[in-house]
Amino acid sequence: MSRTETAGAPTDDAGGDEEFDPVGTLALIAVYFAILVLAWVYIYYIEFLGRDLVVVG
Amino acid sequence: MHIHAYEKIWLALSIVLILFLLGSVTYGAVGPGVAMVADSEAQIDANALDEDDRFAEPRVEQVGENEYEAYVVAYQFGFDPSPIVVPEDSTVTLQITSRDVIHGFEVAGTNANTMAVPGEVAEVTVEVGEPQEYGIVCNEYCGAGHHGMEGKLHVVTEEEFESEDGGDSE
């Protein structure tokens, strides 16, 4: 049974987190995050800064 | 407002990512000194380049200890001088303009890349290392012969550079 943020009364809101833990989504976002960081490190630090004739002025 | 704990995590991650991207660019500017091509040079008359101190005679000139300036004119369809010959391990400032239409100036496979606009002077400073031959391509469509428009940038040893310095030709 799913519930939304607004459905729960304020009194049992604290228990809501335990009932709805989208670990799959969290894992997916963690993977996306890792891909973005690795891609940026490669594009900027290795491919861009590692090339010849960096423009310095 | 209630925000799920996981949602706080990925909100924080996205902010970390943005700060990392901005931090990288800042590091690039402060550390390795990556710079952009600015419009700091004064405008010139593209129709009177033959009266210009720098571009009447496109050339490479020594301006300091281990510092060189190259005055380059792009035209339909080529670059002058070609090849641009500079000594190894030096700092080279390329000043590039065009005498006819908009051209591109890209040292192939490197970050030295700018537009060559008639009446404008693009200034690009690079540090060259080991002797090497680079190709230069025009990357702005400039007419029927665009595809064949190319130049050369030769980084040569000190000795070779000295021996070529006296005579104008290769």
TrEMBL record, chain A:
This is Cytochrome oxidase. The chain crosses the membrane at residues 26-45. Keywords: Membrane, Transmembrane, Transmembrane helix. It comes from Halorubrum rubrum. The keyword Membrane applies.
TrEMBL record, chain B:
It comes from the Archaea. Residues 65-167 form the Cytochrome oxidase subunit II copper A binding domain. Keywords: Copper, Metal-binding. Gene3D superfamilies: Cupredoxins - blue copper proteins (2.60.40.420). It is found in: Cell envelope. Transmembrane segments: none annotated. Its main location: other. InterPro entries: Ba3_CcO_II_C (IPR034214), CcO_II-like_C (IPR002429), Copper_CuA (IPR001505), Cupredoxin (IPR008972), NosZ/Cyto_c_oxidase_sub2 (IPR051403). GO terms for molecular function: metal ion binding. This is Cytochrome c oxidase subunit II.
